[in-house]
Structure formats: C-alpha cells, structure tokens
Amino acid sequence: MENTKLKKELIHAKSKRPSDFWGYAIATVSILHGDFIYRIDGYLVTHAEPYLSKLPEKGIGLFLLFAGVIKLVGLISRNKYLKKISIWMLSAIWGGLSFVSITYSFGTGYPDPYYIFMIFVLVACLRVSSKGDYKYDA
Description:
Elements: H1 4-15, H2 21-39, H3 43-46, H4 57-77, H5 80-105, H6 114-131
Helix pairs in contact: 2-4, 2-6, 4-5, 5-6
Keywords: Membrane, Transmembrane, Transmembrane helix
C-alpha cells in the first residue's frame, strides 16, 4: 500500500528548502568587491576615518576574494561545511567593512551613501546565516 499523503508532504518539505539565490549573490558581490579593493590602491583607505588609515587593503581584498570563492565552491558542490564556514567569514568581513564605512560617513568624512551598500550586503549575509540557506540535506 502506497502512502500518497506522506509522499506529497515529503515533496512539499523538500521544496521548502531555501534557495541558494542569496548565497550566490553574496559570493558574487564579495568576489567582485574584493577584486576591486585589491586592484585599486587607496580606495578603501580614502573611505575610512583617518585613524583607520593603516587598513591592510590588499589583505581585505584577498580575504573577500578567498571567502567569496569558498562560498561559491560550497554552493556548487553543495558542501555544507564550506557554506557554513564561508558565510561566517563573509558576515565578519562585511560587518567590519560596514563599521568602517559608517564611521567615515558619520564621522570626519562627508556623507557618503557607500555605507548603504555595505549594510545591505551585511544584512544579506546575516539573513543567510539566520535562515540557514547554507544547509543541505541530501
């Protein structure tokens, strides 16, 4: 005897698994922004408070590239561990970049909408972390 109700519930539960759209979006933005920060010397430092002028721009750019690539590889290979580690790394770095941008925009710098972009990506990272979009059930 076949339990069709159970099959329908299983199909419905499987379809409720969050999509990886936000994961791909975060990975893509992180890779592109990391490449931009790495290639353009002085961009991040000019958008930071004077007391943060010693920021390791190249290191931050490479970290964003590295974490974004790990996130992308985790999404493509559906590796739960890579997705989890990369979203934690990306949440941390985007949180730091948001802090730097906010302190500049409302500190000694001129009002700059750059912080809105940073906060948007940070919120997307935190959404993926809280919703568990990095989970994968085979």
